[in-house]
Amino acid sequence: MRSSRTSVRACLAALLTAVGLFAAGTGTAHAADTPLRDLAAAKGKVIGTAVTGSKLTGTYGDLAGAQFSSLTPGNAMKWGTVEPTRGSFNWSEAGQIVAFAQAHHQQVRGHTLVWHSQNPSWLTNGSWTSAQLGSLLQNHIGTEVGRYKGKIAAWDVVNEPFNEDGTYRSTLWYDGLGSGYIASALTWAHAADPDAKLYINDYNVEGVNTKSTALYNLVKSLKAQGVPVDGVGLQAHLVLGQVPATLQQNIQRFADLGVDVAVTELDVRMALPADSTKLAQQAADFTSVVAACAAVARCVNVTVWGFTDSDSWVPSTFPGYGAATPYDENYAPKPAYHGIAEALGGTTTTPPPTGACTAAYSVRSQWNAGFTGQVTVSCSGASLSSWQVNWTYGAGQQITQAWNAACTQSGAAVSCRNASYNGSVPDGGSVTFGFNASWSGSNPVPTVSLG
Ligand code: G3I
C-alpha cells in the first residue's frame, strides 16, 4: 500500500515538476508555500531543528528562521563547549542561537546539562569525591539554566542515562552519585528556572522496548516522588525504513503518565548514494514519525537533528551513510521535507525537487530567418522509458526539421516525441534532440512541458 502510493506520488511529482520549466538546467522546485512552522502551529505543534550557531546566516539562516519554530543548539550548550576550562566560560555560540531564536520568535530547547559525552577534560580527567561531583553538577546546572532563565522552553536535563538492556549507563554521574543524580539534576534545574520544561532524553526509546520501558518506569517513579520531570525526549536517530511500529503507542503511554513527549533529534539515515526509491522511503519515514506525534496531544515538538545534509552528524559517524535530513546539501527540500509537511496537514501541490525529470529548451544558433534549437530531457532521482516535450510558440516560429525526435507542429503548438532509440532516460542521465525552425520579428524562448 505504502509503496504503490509512494510511486504514484513520485510519478505525479515528476510530471508536475516538468510543467512550466524552460531553459533550466535543473528542476529546482520551491518548498511548499506554507512553512513547516505554520503547518505545525495549526496543529498545535512545534517543529524544530538542531543548529550550528556559526552557520545562521545566508540560506541556512533563512531556512532555520522561516521553517522552524524551535531551535536546539547541536553542541553549543554542552558542558565541554560552555566551560572548556574550569571556571572559564564560553557562551558565545549558545548566546548567538538564543538571540537568533528570539529574533525569529522561536523556542529554544536547551541541550544538554547532564551527559556522559562532550564534557570538558578537566571534569572527566579529575578525581572527585561524590560530594564534589554533586556540587560540580549542581553549580553547572544552576549556572547554565540560570543564565538563560526565561529564554529556554525546555531543557534536555539528563541525556542518554540508559543502556540498551534498560540498566543505568555507567557514567561519571551514575558511578559517582548513583541513580539519584537524575532526580537531583531535575530538582536543581527546576530551582534555576521553574518555568522551563524539564526532559529526560534518550535514543532507541522510540518504540516499546526494554530500554523505553526502563525510561517509562523511571519517569513513573520520579512523578510518584514529586520530582520535577515534565517530558521525555525520543531522539529518533532512525535507519531508513525502520520506524518502530509501536512509536505512537509508546508516545501515548508516556503521555498517559502525565508528561509531554518530544521527538528531539529526528533523522533517517540511508546507505549512500541516495536514489529516488530511498528518498521516497525516507519521506514516508518522516511522515510516519511526524504523524505519530501529531496524533498524540501531549507530543509537543518534533525536532530534526540538522535540517540540511550539509549539517548532519551522520556521515562522519556512520561512514557510507548519510542524506539523513529533510534538505539536501544545497538546501533544496527533499521528499522528506514534503513528507513532514504532509504529516502536518500541508498540501502536496508543490512537487519535490528530486525524483524528477525536466526539459530544457535553448536556441543554439540563429540567423536572419532561421535558427537551430535544442531540448535536453534530464532525470535526477527518476527515470523515463519514453517522453514527449510540448511547447507553444509565441511569435510565429515554425519547425522545419528535427533530429533525434519526431516533432509535429499544429498552428503554434509543437509536440516532440522520442525516437525509437532514445526514449529511455536513466536516473542521472539526459537525452538531447535538435531542430531547425524559421522565425521573424522575434524569437522568444517558449515554456516547455514534459509529458
Ligand atoms: O569543534 C571541533 C572542531 O574544532 C574540530 O575541528 C572538529 C574536527 O573533528 O571537531 C569539532 O567538534 C565536533 C563537534 O561535533 C562539533 O562539530 C566533534 O568532533 C564531534 O564529535 C561532535 O559531534 C557531535 C556529537 O553529538 C558528539 O557526540 C555532533 O555534532 C552532535 O550533532 C551530536 O549530537 C548528539 C546529541 O547531542 C545527543 N544525541 C546523539 C547526537 C548524535 O551523536
From TrEMBL:
The organism's place on the tree of life at top rank: Bacteria
Gene3D superfamilies (alphabetical): 2.60.40.290, Glycosidases
Keyword Signal: yes
Group of enzyme by EC: hydrolase
Keywords: Carbohydrate metabolism, Glycosidase, Hydrolase, Polysaccharide degradation, Signal, Xylan degradation
Annotated PROSITE patterns: CBM2, GH10_1, GH10_2
Domain CBM2: 350-451
Signal peptide interval: 1-31
GH10 domain sequence ranges: 33-343
Active-site residues annotated for this sequence: E265
EC number: 3.2.1.8
One family name in Pfam for this protein: CBM_2
Reactions the enzyme catalyzes: Endohydrolysis of (1->4)-beta-D-xylosidic linkages in xylans
One GO molecular-function entry: endo-1,4-beta-xylanase activity
Any one GO BP annotation for this protein: xylan catabolic process
InterPro entries: CBD2, CBM2/CBM3_carb-bd_dom_sf, CBM2_carb-bd_dom_sf, GH, GH10, GH10_AS, GH10_dom
SMART domains: CBD_II, Glyco_10
Family according to the record: Belongs to the glycosyl hydrolase 10 (cellulase F) family.
Protein's UniProt name: Beta-xylanase
Organism: Streptomyces cellostaticus
